[in-house]
């Protein structure tokens, strides 16, 4: 017990922002709020400005200073007009603060920029009363109020510990790229379990499906499961009983968190709070690639697109290619997608082999069917057969092509693979290869790609790495 508490106390220092970070965030927030209020003056329909997210709740962690500036609009403003205005207001605001505005997309566009090391997001929402939501972001101000109203004094660090633990274990983030736990979800779990240690103890014993209903909206667990079927983790949103805050959490990320909690309790260590961003050497990657059947599809984007849209397209394309490989007779052990979110993308697959046998068994009809004689005539010149085994005819057929990368390329070009429409052209022109040297050459140009390859080839979640 003492070891656990001592580690947690040391971890507080790791996750707690420095005074310099706090002063910098406070200064940027004050400038952003002031500039935003000035920016909306005179704009019909823009009615208020507020700070939301972890900065408003003081639950942000070291190295992750973020300011979510919300512009509130009258519900009578059309969706189209709201989207136009937020891009205009947000871009002007980021530029005025000295940052470079980037238009991002979620439920609707928002503008992001980095100002003095702080990520500033300028987001639109409608000023509405629950449950009359018009857009997904309308709930956010109510989320902030709820958390501020429920967190006890000093509990901010408990939230930071849970967020830091999740981040270092690779399960933090509700975006499509991660499919993990949002900051709001971490805050609700801390409120529900009261402290980081209690939360980790409970999480270590979770067995899906897990249900949490802080406000008691549902009369029983069965009613919750009826409302949110097929979800491994259900946390009913305290401000919207029809929403599962944990909807984005995949079974894999949930399982990783459960195992990480078990291992942390068994052997407490501050390494569970320290994300690793080490880029491996080429030699290290070469050793991991040796004698393994790795196929990769590398391509460059024709144009930049919203982050979540891109990740969705990549994951759907990855699954389409995976199904194609399996249908061709290959066993796919694992697959994953990567992108720098600007130009470069890669889909990578570990297979049981990179070549099919040159010959394969082709099954014909039973001899008593009318087309049995047609089968015999068609395959009379086969290398082996036709022969009869039991009641059925068989022949041995020869494959013209056996290499996985060539077979896949043929099917992609001919449109036989299910690929996201937005990536079809880029993937049809992709570099499809099994050559380790060419893969290492690609990786040598990007530390981010090196880290991705290390994660894939080592095949261990962050908390299991040495």
Q: How much is the average pLDDT?
A: 94
Our count of domains comes out at: 4
**Main sheet, how many strands, which sense, barrel?**
5 strands, mixed
Number of strands: 15
In what order do the strands lie side by side in the largest sheet?
Answer: 1-2-5-4-3
The first-level CATH class of the largest domain is given as: Alpha Beta
Query: If you consult CATH, what is the topology of the largest domain?
Result: Alpha-Beta Plaits
Unreliable spans are none
CATH architecture of the largest domain: 2-Layer Sandwich
Shape: globular
CA radius of gyration: 27 Å
Helix/strand structural class: alpha+beta
Descriptive report:
With 466 residues, the chain is of the alpha+beta class. It has four domains: 17-138, 2-Layer Sandwich (Beta Polymerase, domain 2), CATH 3.30.460; 151-273, Poly(a)-polymerase, middle domain (Orthogonal Bundle), CATH 1.10.1410.30; 282-355 and 402-464, Poly(A) polymerase predicted RNA binding domain (Alpha-Beta Plaits), CATH 3.30.70.590; 359-398, no CATH class. It has helices at residues 2-15, 19-40, 53-57, 79-96, 140-150, 156-168, 183-193, 196-204, 221-227, 251-266, 282-289, 307-328, 372-378, 404-413, 424-428, 436-443, 447-458; strands at 46-52, 66-73, 102-105, 109-115, 118-126, 210-212, 233-237, 240-244, 293-300, 332-339, 344-351, 359-366, 384-389, 392-398, 431-433. A hairpin with a 2-residue loop joins strand 7 (233-237) and strand 8 (240-244). Helix 12 (307-328) crosses helix 14 (404-413). The radius of gyration is 27 Å and the shape is globular. The model has no long low-confidence stretch (mean pLDDT 94).
């Amino acid at each position: 017990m003492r070891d656990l508490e001592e580690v947690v106390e040391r971890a507080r220092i790791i996750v707690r922002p420095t005074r310099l970070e706090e002063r910098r965030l406070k200064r940027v927030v004050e400038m952003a709020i002031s500039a935003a209020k000035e920016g909306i003056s005179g704009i019909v329909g823009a009615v208020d400005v507020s700070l939301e997210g972890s900065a408003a709740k003081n639950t942000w962690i070291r190295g992750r200073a973020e300011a979510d500036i919300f512009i509130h609009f009258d519900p009578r403003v059309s969706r189209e007009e709201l989207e136009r205005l937020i891009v205009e207001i947000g871009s002007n605001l980021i530029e005025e603060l000295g940052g470079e505005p980037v238009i991002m997309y979620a439920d609707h566009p928002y503008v992001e920029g980095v100002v003095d090391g702080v990520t500033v997001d300028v987001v639109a929402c409608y000023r509405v009363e629950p449950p009359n939501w018009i857009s997904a972001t309308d709930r956010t101000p109510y989320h902030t109020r709820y958390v501020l109203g429920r967190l006890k004094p000093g509990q901010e660090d408990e939230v930071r510990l849970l967020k830091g633990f999740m981040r270092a274990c690779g399960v933090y983030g509700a975006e499509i790229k991660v499919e993990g736990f949002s900051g709001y979800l971490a805050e609700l779990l801390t409120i529900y379990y009261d402290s980081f240690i209690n939360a980790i103890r409970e999480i270590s014993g979770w067995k899906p499906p897990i249900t949490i209903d802080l406000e008691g909206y549902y009369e029983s667990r069965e009613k919750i499961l009826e409302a949110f079927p097929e979800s491994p983790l259900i946390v009913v949103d305290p401000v919207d009983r029809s929403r599962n805050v944990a909807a984005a959490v995949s079974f894999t990320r949930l399982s990783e968190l459960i195992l990480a909690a078990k291992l942390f309790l068994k052997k407490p260590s501050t390494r569970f709070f320290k994300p690793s961003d080490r880029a491996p050497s080429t030699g290290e990657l070469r050793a991991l690639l040796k004698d393994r059947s790795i196929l990769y599809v590398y391509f460059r984007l024709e144009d930049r697109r919203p982050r979540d849209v891109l990740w969705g397209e990549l994951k759907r394309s990855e699954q389409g290619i995976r199904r194609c490989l399996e249908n061709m007779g290959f066993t796919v052990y694992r697959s994953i997608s990567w992108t720098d979110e600007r130009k470069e993308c890669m889909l990578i697959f570990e297979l049981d082999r990179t070549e099919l046998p040159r010959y394969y068994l082709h099954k014909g009809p039973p001899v008593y069917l009318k087309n049995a004689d047609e089968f015999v005539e068609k395959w009379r010149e086969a290398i082996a057969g036709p022969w009869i085994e039991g009641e059925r005819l068989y022949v041995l057929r020869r494959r013209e092509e056996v290499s996985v990368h060539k077979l896949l390329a043929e099917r992609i070009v001919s449109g036989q693979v299910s690929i996201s429409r937005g990536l079809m052209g880029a993937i049809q022109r992709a570099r499809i290869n099994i050559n380790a040297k060419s893969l290492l050459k690609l990786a040598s140009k990007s530390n981010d790609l090196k880290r991705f390859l290390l994660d894939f080839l080592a095949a261990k979640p962050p908390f299991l790495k040495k």
